[in-house]
Amino acid sequence: MSPEIRVSAAVVTDGAGRALVVRKRGTDLFQQPGGKPDPGETALEAVVRELVEETGIIADAASFTVLGEYRDTAANEPGHIVVADAFALVVSPVDAVAGAEIAELRWIGEHDLDATPLAPLSRNQLLPLAWR
């Protein structure tokens, strides 16, 4: 059985039907904003913190909707499975800025999926939730 990496992930969408994805420095694939919870931090607290650190988007914890737990092949840790506690957040058109370890961010629509290099968890599990 492959080792697991636990993360919190934000499926952030806007009124134009776009979803926010980020690419960390030193990687090639885009994924949802988020990351590993700090010790003693809940999954929701982690996603709120990571979203601010990575994108500058500030949202109250009550603004998030629990999507559930999703798992797929880890994009940047060979031989690992990533297990994500996923949360949805709908924002008004907002200026997101790459912060922390983020090299690039993009707002993508469903028509951009084929042209965007995406982590397996994002492509297979999380982004379909953005357009359901």
UniProtKB/TrEMBL annotation:
<dbReference type="InterPro" id="IPR000086">
    <property type="entry name" value="NUDIX_hydrolase_dom"/>
</dbReference>
<dbReference type="Pfam" id="PF00293">
    <property type="entry name" value="NUDIX"/>
</dbReference>
<dbReference type="InterPro" id="IPR020084">
    <property type="entry name" value="NUDIX_hydrolase_CS"/>
</dbReference>
<protein>
    <submittedName>
        <fullName>NUDIX domain-containing protein</fullName>
    </submittedName>
</protein>
<dbReference type="InterPro" id="IPR020476">
    <property type="entry name" value="Nudix_hydrolase"/>
</dbReference>
<comment type="similarity">
    <text>Belongs to the Nudix hydrolase family.</text>
</comment>
<feature type="domain" description="Nudix hydrolase">
    <location>
        <begin position="3"/>
        <end position="131"/>
    </location>
</feature>
<keyword id="KW-0378">Hydrolase</keyword>
<dbReference type="InterPro" id="IPR015797">
    <property type="entry name" value="NUDIX_hydrolase-like_dom_sf"/>
</dbReference>
